Amino acid sequence: MIQSLRTRHRWAFSVLAVLIPLVFVAGLKARYRSVGGAQIPAEAVLVAPQDPTWQNHLVLVQTSTTADGQHSLRLLPIKPIVAPDLLVYHAQQIPQPGRLPEDAHLLGRWDANSSYSAPSGGYLLLYSGAQKTVLDTIPLGGRP
């Protein structure tokens, strides 16, 4: 009786030794990829960078426009921005201190290597979801 249980356990552990790593690798390949925004297309025309001085941070904003009129923004921080759950929003209205405007649209998670699709004009907002506050704003299209 003990020999038959040992044989079953040996087979069960042999199967698990192969199955568990396969499931782990499949889980890593299938996991959720974060939204980084749109990539700047190769045919985009780069417009001169805007004034990098936001209210609280130094971030260079590069804008580009494709032949069909789509606008892409790339945010390049001069100094790293350290904030929990940092999100990038676009709004047409000037934001109130610390609050998101009613018309704010999420462009994506903050990532220095990504670009974002946004309409021309309005304001870019850096928002901390964990702190529930707007950390910084900059008007698009130059300072008002």
Q: Which features does this protein show?
A:
1 helix, 4-stranded antiparallel β-sheet, about 140 residues
Describe the structure.
- The protein is an alpha+beta fold.
- It folds into two domains: 1-31; 45-139, no CATH class.
- The protein has one helix and eight strands.
- The protein has one helix at residues 2-30, and strands at residues 45-47, 59-65, 71-77, 86-91, 105-109, 115-117, 123-128, 133-139.
- The longest helix has 29 residues, at 2-30.
- The termini are far apart.
Q: In what order do the strands lie side by side in the largest sheet?
A: 1-2-3-6
Count of DSSP H/I helices: 1
Q: On the 0-100 scale, what is the average pLDDT?
A: 77
Beta strand %: 25-35%
Number of domains: 2
Helix content: 10-25%
Structural class: alpha+beta
Shape: elongated
User: Radius of gyration, Cα only, in angstroms?
Assistant: 24 Å
Question: In this structure, how is the largest beta sheet organized?
Answer: 4 strands, antiparallel
Distance between the termini: 86 Å
Order of SSEs: HEEEEEEEE
> In terms of per-residue confidence, which ranges show pLDDT below 50 for 5 or more consecutive residues?
34-38, 42-48
Q: Using DSSP, what is the number of strands?
A: 8
Oligomer: single chain
Layout of helices and strands:
Elements (H helix, E strand, L loop, with lengths): L1 H29 L14 E3 L11 E7 L5 E7 L8 E6 L13 E5 L5 E3 L5 E6 L4 E7 L5
Question: What's a concise summary of this model?
Answer:
The protein has one helix at residues 2-30, and strands spanning 45-47, 59-65, 71-77, 86-91, 105-109, 115-117, 123-128, 133-139. It is α+β, with helices and mostly antiparallel strands and 144 residues long.
